[in-house]
């Protein structure tokens, strides 16, 4: 190409990209995933995130540090005499982000929601519990809407103070709230006439003096209705109805802590063969910090994070941890289940621990973990981010298969200058490689289903999904997955699970059009009642999902 033509072509490209909307600017696109800046600033740190069934994300930070960078609308202000920094605050500490429109609006919380927890209940509303100071026993509800809805606070709905606790939705639609700082117990919400707080000695046994290392325990509902609870470096299978430990698992090899503040992350791997008498359930725990790291950061000694993952079959008669090595050491990473059953590991640091100013060496490269891959070759490194996502970062799956990434604030307040890792108010989307255009010819597009919006599906029922594929269909490479959206904070995605629906039967019904028939999960032990995102997956390439509700 002649030199002048090359220059003109280059200038044309610069003008083209400059004219694109901000949420379509691609910062890394040469395969291995793409990063998009959605919003330069939403005015708050995305410390907690939850996707709702109207494709809007509820995001919130904390109230005790002072004013945020986003004003409340219509002259609203929050008056709170218990606040230390600002008692009359006219700024927002929560937002609703509209994924489809790429817009956000401020929300108002009355009390401090710092380091709290929550779950989406069967009616689709987010029930959030606990926090700090005047918020530590509060319950707040956000009902999805398309208008100007806001948080509704119901007062002291908890019996114990819940700060750094974990919530999990149960088959009956209630939440169990486990642990929290100096809380070696659990309770349920909504309340019943039974006792309000139940002792859980396991949390006391896993508490390290001076560092705790058992906050935000990893909790997963097992296929038998019991709860797998991991804290520090070990786990139990717990019958929450009787208060009995059903099984005690061996400590993870090496004995290093994986829970806050030595923060690793964990997922329940995809549940398959759902009609089997005993369903194979596996938990994957990755990253964390070597024992003693939290004490050492006080002396500004930032120990290299753990680079290992432990994987365990929790229903095995003799369960044992199988260890694997990640491409990068990582603490404060986030693990997200993708629609095709692959795990994304993203965000975090290569040294130090969670806590104010405690992390170093940001890990910018996301990693895929292929659960069905050959041992020793399950990890795939992806394109790096340019924004460090350290302490108080988040990541959640969106319906279109992208991953929403936000947060990072390792400071007591908002600090933008003169610090190693400035407070980050932006939102990004990470597009995994399956969203690359080269896969469009095998990508399914859902046309309709017997679980279309407004209809419910029951347990153990036939479900028909119609979809299109423009290229050649490989019927034996079709699967249908159901994903429960996560409540994400502090490197843990609560209530996050993926089910591979069984009895797949694919039928051609027209040009490039097919029906796939599957069977829904047989009980609430596998899929607690509520909203899920349903995907058709072809050769590991997922469709855009549709919302379904199972009752």
UniProtKB/TrEMBL annotation:
**One GO MF term:** oxidoreductase activity
Spell out the subcellular localization from the entry. Answer: Secreted
Q: Residues in domain Galactose oxidase-like Early set?
A: 443-550
Arranged from A to Z, the UniProt key words for this protein are:
Oxidoreductase, Secreted, Signal
Q: Where is the Glyoxal oxidase N-terminal domain?
A: 47-434
Q: Which InterPro entries did the record assign?
A: Glyoxal_oxidase_N, GO-like_E_set
One of the Pfam families matching this protein, by short name: GO-like_E_set
Q: Does the keyword Oxidoreductase apply?
A: yes
Q: Which GO terms describe its cellular component?
A: extracellular space
Question: What highest taxon heads this organism's lineage?
Answer: Eukaryota
Q: Where is the signal peptide?
A: 1-24
Q: What is this protein called?
A: Aldehyde oxidase GLOX
């Amino acid at each position: 190409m002649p030199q002048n033509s090359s220059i003109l072509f280059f200038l044309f490209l610069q003008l083209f990209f400059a004219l694109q909307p901000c949420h379509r600017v691609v910062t890394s696109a040469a395969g291995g995933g793409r990063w998009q800046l959605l919003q330069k600033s939403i005015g708050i740190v995305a410390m907690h995130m939850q996707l709702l069934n109207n494709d809007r994300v509820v995001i919130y930070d904390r109230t005790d540090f002072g004013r945020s960078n986003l004003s409340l609308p219509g002259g609203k202000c929050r008056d709170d005499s218990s606040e230390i920094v600002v008692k009359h605050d006219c700024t927002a500490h929560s937002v609703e982000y509209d994924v489809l429109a790429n817009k956000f609006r401020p929300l108002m919380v009355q009390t401090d929601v710092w380091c709290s927890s929550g779950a989406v209940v069967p009616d689709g509303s987010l029930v959030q519990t606990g926090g700090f100071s005047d918020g530590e026993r509060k319950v707040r509800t956000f009902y999805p809407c398309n208008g100007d809805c806001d948080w509704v606070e119901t007062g002291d709905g908890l019996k114990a103070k819940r700060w750094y606790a974990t919530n999990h939705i149960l088959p009956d639609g209630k939440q169990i709230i486990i642990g929290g700082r100096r809380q070696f117990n659990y309770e349920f919400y909504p309340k019943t006439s039974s006792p309000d707080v139940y002792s859980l000695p396991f949390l006391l046994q896993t508490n390290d003096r001076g560092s705790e290392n058992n906050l935000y325990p990893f909790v997963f509902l097992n296929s038998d209705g019991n709860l797998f609870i991991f804290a520090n470096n070990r786990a139990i299978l717990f019958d929450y109805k009787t208060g009995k430990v059903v099984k005690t698992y061996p400590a993870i090899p090496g004995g290093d802590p994986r829970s806050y503040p030595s923060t690793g992350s964990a997922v329940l791997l995809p549940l398959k063969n759902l009609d089997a008498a005993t369903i194979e359930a596996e938990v994957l725990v990755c990253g964390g910090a070597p024992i003693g790291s939290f004490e050492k950061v006080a002396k500004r000694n930032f120990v290299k994070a753990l680079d290992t993952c432990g994987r365990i079959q929790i229903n095995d008669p003799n369960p044992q941890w199988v260890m694997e090595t990640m491409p990068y050491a990582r603490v404060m990473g986030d693990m997200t289940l993708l629609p095709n059953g692959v795990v994304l590991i993203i965000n975090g640091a290569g040294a130090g621990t969670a806590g104010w100013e405690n992390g170093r060496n940001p890990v910018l490269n996301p990693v895929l973990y292929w659960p069905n891959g050959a041992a020793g070759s399950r990890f795939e490194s992806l394109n790096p981010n340019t924004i460090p996502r350290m302490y108080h970062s988040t990541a959640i799956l969106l319906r279109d298969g992208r991953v929403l990434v936000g947060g990072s604030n390792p400071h007591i307040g908002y600090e933008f200058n003169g610090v190693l890792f400035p407070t980050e108010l932006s939102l990004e989307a990470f597009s995994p490689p399956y969203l690359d255009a080269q896969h469009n010819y095998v990508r399914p597009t859902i046309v309709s289903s017997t679980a279309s919006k407004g209809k419910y599906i029951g347990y153990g029922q036939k479900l028909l999904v119609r979809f299109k594929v423009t290229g050649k269909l490989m019927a034996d490479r079709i699967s249908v997955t159901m994903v429960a959206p996560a409540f994400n904070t502090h490197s843990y995605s609560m209530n996050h699970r993926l089910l591979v629906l069984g009895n797949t039967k694919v039928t051609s019904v027209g040009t490039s059009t097919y029906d796939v028939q599957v069977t829904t999960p047989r009980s609430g032990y596998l899929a607690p009642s509520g909203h899920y995102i349903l995907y058709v997956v072809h050769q590991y390439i997922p469709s855009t999902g549709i919302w379904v509700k199972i009752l």
